[in-house]
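Comment thread on ticket #2218

A.B. wrote:
> Attaching the input chain for the structure job we discussed in standup.
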Amino acid sequence: MRCDRVWRGARIATLAPEAAGLGVIEGGVIAARDGRIAYVGPADAAPAFEAGETIDCEGRWITPGLVDCHTHLIFGGNRAHEFELRLAGASYEEIARAGGGIVSTMKATRAASEAELVARALPRLDALLAEGVTTIEVKSGYGLSREAELKSLKAARALGTHRPVDVVTTYLGAHALPPEANGDKARYIDEVIALLPEIKAQGLADAVDAFCEGIAFSPDEVARLFEAARAQGLPVKLHADQLSNLHGAKLAAEFGALSADHLEHTDDEGAAAMARAGTVAVLLPGAFYFIRETKVPPVELFRRHGTHMALATDCNPGTSPLTSLLLTMNMGATLFRMTVDECLAGVTREAARALGRLDSIGTLEAGKFCDLAIWDIERPAELVYRMGFNPLHARVWRGQ
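C.D. wrote:
> Ran it. Output below, let me know if you need it in another format.
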């Protein structure tokens, strides 16, 4: 078999859906050709290879490249000062009245050029790539105006021209109500909808998202946006049931959403609806930790109904300034009581599913992109167990 590169002597966690557990192959081989996996399996069943390069992994573990399926990587400024104020006793409302909160991020994002937004996001992206991330989702949502949302989406797309990574973009115009809307949510949703054709025509977004919550937008407002997204042929996803149960999970399922995210307050009906629709539950322990939530997502309900579960950093300046999927996995295990297998699947196979990309990434199977993370570990549990330690030996994107 002709191929560009072969990795031998590896212990491979394929995460293949039909395999038991992590789909482990001992003494495994992976061969890449033209950026895709040409062979993955045991060495004793492998064909003869004509390879440009052969790499001895010396018993190291190989997993699929990690997938961070929920981030807000593009934004201006930061909110470290607000963090200090909160620690000193200031409430969120007091900070917001003083011009803080999302309004401060909105102002900084609007004031920054596209190039500046890219430059500020690259260190955050680099931290994730250093831990084996090969695909990342990036949302808009801090511009909250036509010009600033388009600028943010273009900046997100541009990240993929600066680094070897697949960037999936999401239009989150319905993230919050900007001050100039003067409290008129209906009119603002009209403006968010009006931008959809331009975003679609320019190929700036792969999906449409919204924040369904009492402090953001109602189920009816979100449904109107999702109907418009459907008319444009854009898939949807939803920030749902984070602070209260507005039945956002059920709403997401009704629209066949790729994912519903956060979900701390999701009920049995919502979990069941998501399972039937194939909508992935994306759990975000960084935000849970940072805002000191106490109600955990209903992981047991998701297990009972067979709802797929993913994990993501939710990297954002206000509620989850987190740029580590390894720490995210540890939080998923310690805070949400997810298993090692659930955590690892959550940042590979299920994260790919949450982006609608499972046909090409997320598992190690012939025909998929050759995106690999090679680890200096004795067992996969180390990737979930350790905190503040990065055992990545090598990251491979598209076979390189």
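A.B. wrote:
> Thanks. Noting for the ticket: The chain has 16 helices and 15 strands.
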